[in-house]
Write a structure and sequence with these properties.
2 copies of one chain form a homodimer.
Chain A (H helix, E strand, L loop, with lengths): L1 E9 L16 H12 L8 E3 L8 E11 L23 H6 L22 H15 L4 E8 L12 E9 L14 E2 L6 H9 L3 E4 L13 E11 L5 E7 L6 H13 L7 H8 L14 E7 L6 H16 L9
Parallel strand pairs in A: 3-10, 5-6
Antiparallel strand pairs in A: 1-3, 1-4, 2-3, 5-9, 5-10, 7-8, 8-9
Helix pairs in contact in A: 1-3, 4-5
Family (chains A, B): Belongs to the tRNA pseudouridine synthase TruA family.
Function (chains A, B): Formation of pseudouridine at positions 38, 39 and 40 in the anticodon stem and loop of transfer RNAs.
Catalytic activity (chains A, B): uridine(38/39/40) in tRNA = pseudouridine(38/39/40) in tRNA
């Protein structure tokens, strides 16, 4: 078996979220079907993802892994497309490495897993192109590579970085961004939102901002939450944590929007956090403003240890089944 | 009568271009209808636009003007919405002035046209909000102001700036940008494209890159045409000229893409330009990569002179009806 890492993005508008569900169009379902079809597998393979996203939530820097029989890669030699001729200094492999999603630290250069064909990189570039031909344009796999030893898309992750985008322009925001920027019908004051956000940073029980799941911990380390007005236009929040519980970013954003437009005082979100129970005054912000921008992993040598530690912590704190990080 | 300047943007995907056409959904038609409805005019008023865009072409910095009876503004006092309360330091007028599209040089601060009500700015802010409620979300009017003396959205313009966006990522570009970024199925070399573009700058007869119209000059001054790879992702061309003739940017881009992916030599676009006749080897690039980003105007004191000069030059060179700049 070989473990592949997939770097991907999607417009969540027309998906019922990431997770496969019978009868629904989901990102996981579409990619698994495409992989099964391209590699002529008897069953679609199962993907493991870094951040399961809700219906309507987007991703630019989503990461998943899939385990496949090495022999399945041979299928990529059949009908190999040659529409992207290798050019001096701009070959397929080299060009892909210069692009976003192409910066996997500790990529297994020169240390292929046992049994891998020597031209595995070329075959995986073919896989990327074939996925581009099979998938609808609202989901794109930007890169596929052999995962380094110990890599687990979910448990090896050090952090998830989300962006939340909101425009308070009086007549409405940029029409070309309307699928990923929420429009807010009152002027927003980013300084107040940042003052309120600063009081939420650090390790806390975020139960007040999470949809509770049985047996799942709501303790998270919020590493960054900061609003910046993007080039005079929409406000963009950068939100980073080790992991998130369900609807956490959107609930945090909903609380901060109430501060930003003057409906709540700066102290309010921290007071809600301190009560550690769901607060009906917190409105979960709309899904379409949220985008998973990046998943961070440690250097290759620490991947396996990180995965083991994450599994241990989650299992212990949950007292049972490990919780999933969701947005 | 009062002349209003409108700053606006649209997602061109679902429009049959800017120009009003019977039975078609056009940007001009939608805004004219909305203005007529909000101001309760007997007929929709006629808009004059800086850059007429083709079907599928987008705009972020489009500018138009409209002449209205001063009395029509009184309609805005009826049912005036108060959903955006004035806040200390963040009033409607002040906030709008900090935003894109709000930077009209020489705005008529403190010098209202004769007969204008003293609260005209407040009424026009109401108009922006009401347009936001009436128009579909794929077209937004970001600002409406009283046009300075001598202002003509079309003839006073000094330059039009367009962007053309294309991604050559092997598996496809960012799904969230697919409506405004064209995907090109071969790697592109921006240095070669810029070398070719540099030979096209200056005042030339661009007949080779224009759809010919009877009586219309094809002499234009191409002030800037430069490709930059945006943050490691798509390539973005900035294209600036005094004005453009029909399909000119897309034909120039089509020629440069052929250089960028190695199908044509760097010298080729300049050779085509030199022949001054349409070249069947030039493929007009897809409309959805093109966006009108900015229209530049001179300082207020020079607006009328600029408009008169533009009219004179266009009429003389065309030997009749003044040509329209189109993309």
């Amino acid at each position: 078996m070989v473990r592949l890492r997939l770097d991907l993005g999607y417009d969540g508008t027309d998906f019922s979220g990431w997770a496969r569900q019978p009868g629904r169009r989901t990102v996981q379902g579409e990619i698994e079907q495409a992989l099964g079809r391209i590699l002529r597998l008897a069953e679609p393979p199962a993907l493991t993802v870094a951040g399961r996203t809700d219906a309507g939530v987007h991703a630019r820097g989503q990461v998943a892994h899939v385990d496949l029989p090495v022999a399945a890669l041979a299928e990529l030699d059949r009908n190999r497309r040659t529409t992207r001729p290798a050019q001096p200094g701009a070959g397929v492999g080299g060009a892909a490495g210069d692009r976003p999603g192409g910066g996997l630290d500790g990529a297994p250069e020169g240390v292929p897993a046992e049994g891998l064909p020597p031209d595995v990189d070329e075959r995986l570039a073919t896989l990327v192109r074939r996925l581009g031909g099979v998938l609808e344009p609202d989901v794109r796999v930007h890169r596929v590579c052999v995962a380094p030893d110990g890599f687990d898309a979910r448990f090896s992750a050090l952090f998830r970085r989300y962006a939340y985008r909101v425009s308070d322009a009086p007549g409405g925001g940029d029409p070309l961004r309307r699928r990923e920027v929420v429009w807010h019908n009152r002027p927003l004051e980013p300084d107040a939102m940042n003052a309120a956000a600063a009081r939420l940073l650090g390790e806390h029980d975020f139960a007040a901002f999470c949809k509770k799941r049985d047996g799942a911990t709501t303790i998270r380390e919020l590493q960054r939450l900061r609003w910046v007005r993007d080039d005079g236009g929409p406000l963009v929040a950068t939100v980073v944590a080790d992991a998130f519980c369900h609807s956490m970013v959107r609930a945090l954003v909903g609380a901060l929007l109430a501060v930003g437009d003057g409906r709540r005082p700066v102290e309010w979100p921290a007071q809600v956090l301190g009560r550690a129970v769901r607060d009906s005054g917190v409105h979960v912000a709309p899904a379409h403003g949220l985008c998973l921008e990046e998943v961070g992993y440690p250097p290759e040598a620490e991947l396996a240890a990180r995965a083991a530690a994450t599994r241990r912590v989650r299992t212990a704190s949950a007292g049972g089944d490990a919780p999933f990080e969701d947005e």
